[in-house]
Amino acid sequence: MTDIQDKEKKGYLNEVTVVPVLDDDEYDVAKDVHSGITDGLHRTMEQRHVQMIALAGTLGVGLFLGSGKAVAQAGPCGALLAYGLIGSVVWCIMQCLGEMLCFAPISGGYVHMAERYIHPSAGFAVGWMHWYSSIISLPTEIISATLIIGYWIEMTNARLAGFITLLLFLCASFNFLGARWYAESEFWFALIKICLIIGLIIGGVIVDLGGNPVGERIGFRYWKDPGAFASYPIAGPIGIFTGCFQTLLQAAYSFSGVESIAISCAEVVNPRANMAGCTRKIFWRILFFYFFGIIVVGMLVPSDEPRLLKSTGTAASSPFVIAFTRVGIKGLPSVINAGVLTSAFSAGSSILYGSSRILYGLSLRGQAPKIFSRCLERNGLPLIALACSSSSFFLAYMTLSSGSNTVLNWLSDLTSIATFISWAFICVSFLRFKSACDAQGIIRSESKYIYNRFQPFPAYWALFWCIITIFFNGYKVFLKGRWNTSSFIIAYINIPIVGALFLGHYLFTKRPSFKPASKIDMVSNIPGPEIDFDPNPPTTKIGKFLRWLL
């Protein structure tokens, strides 16, 4: 039995097409759309890796620092309502995403879904939007990490350049060593953050009940004074509404990254069962941490605390630090800073992984240069796609020049709405997927992995809020006396960019119009049941419990 055949039997290769091995220890990958595609990625990740990758991407700065800003803008009750509403949207998106992943667990994630179920131009547009937004975000995560280090060490240009180089090297190393190394590093980074968050929540409850140096029970007093709701950025009832809506946007940013499990789908063993388990568990775990985190912050810190709206990028603006220092507990900032530093570094590593796989998936289907679909045979690493994506890391050195740093921050803000556009494409892809199943006699309810009988209503609910968010995220510039041209461009520039990518690809390739549901390809290049097995199933009760827990 050959090495490739052995890997096929174990489920490490996604397809059964054997490709010739080239002299340079790499093999080329066919770029035909759907039929004839040979995916070079290897299935080496486990369920625990995928869940922790999604957790690592969503639990971090948004909770450590952003939760305080949410309480300041909307009040404790307003923040809970905003996070609850966005939580319902994310649950709906995960239901849509999970069902499509279990049907076709292959490379490209939701970009492939848009290409297959909507139109090739849709996949091209959302794929390149994801890639360019990722490579712009990469250096800003490294810069954020160096700012946090500056909390302990006074930064000179020489030190800043040194720390940037060190962080770039470490972040790239985890990815260039292969998917397994990247997944294992994300697992432990996420575990550190989870332990820290649990400790902060438990500690916050103890402090609230009177376990603090002052010996004072706080309870829910701040829900009465200054109140359960706050107004932002203007006073009065309209300010309460805009404050809640602003927190709604922030909550959506906090949840962004949960869709990243789709990108790793082609590198997970037993993908259908593991993807189904991840999409069921990950949402509730993320919601649990944010829900209780917001409650604790709302109990310990009043919404009119001025430090909540100060954006320092370090633990000084963390609501947990503010809450504990208000009752005389010191020494927490360094602990929080460590968690934020881990989050920033982990985010950079995760963005690099995702951007390289998106570029690889685009190349695989002929929507990017063919060279980016070349993989190393020994570990399935898309080396050239990864090298191309990581080249943007060097933009981090722009922070050594103050003027360039301003430009870099402005470019980073341009990518903020990309998450909502991706979510909208996921919803539309699912609606087309459901229509295709109905038209072609595919019975979705017979799936043993994931099925929601209430569809398509969850998809429409999520799509509605995605559209609202996309078109109203820049509402503040339309308030009286608040017009700002750069803020307007930042809020809405991605809409014409995606439109131009779609239209340009459509006109250049002269692809046919949208297919009717009965003509959508629901067969080609979709792995069969031969990949649906667990190579290392737990055999003990402890092992099964850990599999469920992690």
TrEMBL record:
Pfam families: AA_permease. It is a multi-pass membrane protein. This is Amino acid transporters. PROSITE patterns: AMINO_ACID_PERMEASE_1. Coiled coil: none annotated. Residues 49-512 form the Amino acid permease/ SLC12A domain. InterPro entries: AA-permease/SLC12A_dom, Amino_acid_permease_CS, APC_YAT. Keywords: Amino-acid transport, Membrane, Transmembrane, Transmembrane helix, Transport. It is found in: Membrane. GO terms for cellular component: membrane. The chain crosses the membrane at residues 49-68, 80-111, 131-153, 160-181, 187-207, 282-301, 335-360, 381-398, 410-433, 454-475, 487-508. GO terms for molecular function: amino acid transmembrane transporter activity. It comes from the Eukaryota.
